[in-house]
Design goal:
Elements: H1 14-24, H2 27-44, H3 52-77
Length: about 80
């Protein structure tokens, strides 16, 4: 799985670029992407484990891991150590 962490606060465009991205990917886009991820997870569950409780367990496991990795990456890749 690949994750991209970027900052638009430096370099050409700076804060303007970050604001444009925020406008383009508002709450509706984020909601849609999360729902799509949940749907993909549902489709990937084995038939014998395809139920809402298992889906929730797997989604929470994946999100918790992603947030942990994000925090770790921020710490390890920070330029202000």
């Amino acid at each position: 799985m690949a994750a991209f962490v970027s900052s638009c606060s430096t370099g050409e465009g700076g804060e303007d670029a970050a604001e444009k991205i925020a406008e383009m990917f508002g709450p509706g886009q984020i909601d849609q992407m999360i729902r799509q991820g949940i749907h993909f997870c549902w489709m990937a569950l084995p038939k014998n484990r395809k139920n809402v409780d298992e889906l929730e367990r797997q989604i929470r496991r994946i999100v918790d891991r992603a947030l942990k990795d994000f925090r770790e990456d921020q710490e390890q890749l920070s330029r202000t150590k």
